[in-house]
Amino acid sequence: MKARYFIPLALATLTLLPGCSPKGASAGGELELQNVSYDPTREFYEEVNAAFVKKWEADGKGKIKVIQSHGGSGKQARSVIDGQQADVVTLALAGDIDVIAKQAKLLPDDWQSKLPDNSSPYTSTIVFVVRKGNPKGVKDWADLIKEGTQVITPDPKTSGGARWNYLAAWAWAEKEYGGDQAKTLEYIKALFKNVPVLDTGARAATTTFAQSKIGDVFLSWENEAYLIEKQFPGETEIVYPSISILAEPPVAVVEKNAAKHGATEAAQAYLQFLYTDEAQEFAGKHFYRPRKPEILAKFSSKLQDIPLVTVDKDFGGWEKAQKTHFDDGGTFDQAYGVK
Amino acid sequence: MPKQRVIPGFGLSMGITIFWLSGIILIPLAALFLKAAGLGPSEWWAILSSPRVIAAAKLTFGASAAAALVSMVLGLLVAWVLVRYEFPGRKILDAIVDLPFALPTAVAGITLTQIYAPNGWLGKILFEWGIRSAYSSLGVFIALTFIGFPFVVRTVQPVMEDLGHELEEAAASLGASRWTTFRRVIFPMLVPALITGFTLAFARAIGEYGSVIFISGNLPMKTEILPLLIVKQLEQFKYEAAAVIASGMLIVSFALLFLINLLQRRLNWQAR
């Protein structure tokens, strides 16, 4: 490149770098709230944000703007630890927020008790998505280890959603084999033998299954399953297994950041808004399970009632589950023969 | 009297150079090693010698070398066609070569995967021959060839343009056949540029992440690349382990690149 082009170009690039442009919490007299979330909540929060902005103004609190950021849950947690100015986090796993509390000390360790229902305003579960007509006849977890059935799931090491998949499969197998750990691990081994691709995140796995048409069964968030049905009408079916897991994606105010931005009140109001009837309706509309029973009931024709295990009761909490299954040398590594 | 220089003020220009290099390359790399230094030598060894890291390293360096080699051969051919022949659409073809530089690698990865997947256009045909292209180490090789090959074209092309026809004419007048002319006259002059192209393609391939994770299938011990392994350590918030793998990768890469550079200097010297 010629030198005389280089300098103006370099300057132009510099001004485009996000860190270089002046930015504050209250740019232009407008309060800015940053919600750092995980992959499949994009559409849900778009709607929540619009409603919250309207309500905040109607309450006479002034103008507010909510910025959303989406990505793999672990990656998002890391960017908050490394300095992304999130005022609230709405992630896939309590463990991811725990790390923000423990490593970066941006919020207290007992954050999960600050809001009702374990700080999870909506829940979800893991279901099977199969091709139209269910050609492989997949009904339950046992069918996933059949010869010639390809299963798509993201990698539990990189995807929060995949950890729920994994624990749901584990819970079924443990029950099926009467708690026999060796047999349970055998099942997991057989299951992952049928996995041809381990995508790094839930959305990438959705692309693999729905767009690239790889695999027979896709282990998916319930809401993502219905999104696929909407996006690719008539191509897929949803199968509810005999047992699954109660996924509780938690939310929290990143207290230090919010205080720094003068957005503490707004951040708290934003998360409390998630528990209102209005937001609970949005959750149901986007195929999350609302916590309010009367609103959940409205969506019960879709969001079927099946037995759900929980991480706290059946796996001894996230910290333990993470260590036993997903840390290096855990059961997932054992299933792949990696030590 | 001091020698006249093109850019005035050696002190100032050198100062800016060092400042930029420090801010952009040296300090971040030093920080990486510092992070990794939080662990002792035995932990370094335990991480770097684990079967999983070794398997990923083999795939990463192996596929990168293979892809850079193939890029070298194909790149030479493409450069030759672009320099030596006039044909309609040459300029467009010339511009197309640069596209892999500009395309976001994730887009490249998704596109390649769609095409080479068992039910994709090309993947279907390969699959019938019993070749698994996507979700195998072959897929990794395909992605790395895609992102690496423009480097070879762009380093060989200018050298080829400068060659001139006199040497060839001289060789022909002395009775050399066309093949002999190519082998004994033209090719040796291209070798240094080819090696530079190989080195660049190889270095680029080792660190490539975006395109590979879509096409490789990411299966541990089988189709997992080193950069993905680093990301997986980060996902577990193990910054130090990630830094150790990254540092190990850097050391090996630097050693390899340094050796290739030495080799190139020798060849350059011999060619003269």
TrEMBL record, chain A:
The keyword Iron does not apply. Keywords: Periplasm, Signal, Transport. Residues 1-27 form the signal peptide. CDD domains: PBP2_CysP. SUPFAM superfamilies: Periplasmic binding protein-like II. InterPro entries: Thiosulph/SO4-bd. Its main location: periplasm. The keyword Transport applies. Gene3D superfamilies: Periplasmic binding protein-like II. It holds the Pfam family SBP_bac_11. It is found in: Periplasm. NCBIfam families: 3a0106s03, PRK10752.1, PRK10852.1. Belongs to the prokaryotic sulfate-binding protein family. This is Sulfate ABC transporter substrate-binding protein. It comes from Luteolibacter flavescens.
UniProtKB/TrEMBL annotation, chain B:
It is found in: Cell membrane. Keywords: Membrane, Sulfate transport, Transmembrane, Transmembrane helix, Transport. It is a multi-pass membrane protein. Residues 57-260 form the ABC transmembrane type-1 domain. It comes from the Bacteria. InterPro entries: CysT_permease, MetI-like, MetI-like_sf, Sulph_transpt2. CDD domains: TM_PBP2. The chain crosses the membrane at residues 12-34, 54-83, 95-117, 129-153, 185-206, 241-263. Belongs to the binding-protein-dependent transport system permease family. CysTW subfamily. The complex is composed of two ATP-binding proteins (CysA), two transmembrane proteins (CysT and CysW) and a solute-binding protein (CysP). Part of the ABC transporter complex (TC 3.A.1.6.1) involved in sulfate/thiosulfate import. This is Sulfate transport system permease protein CysT. It comes from Luteolibacter flavescens. The gene is cysT.
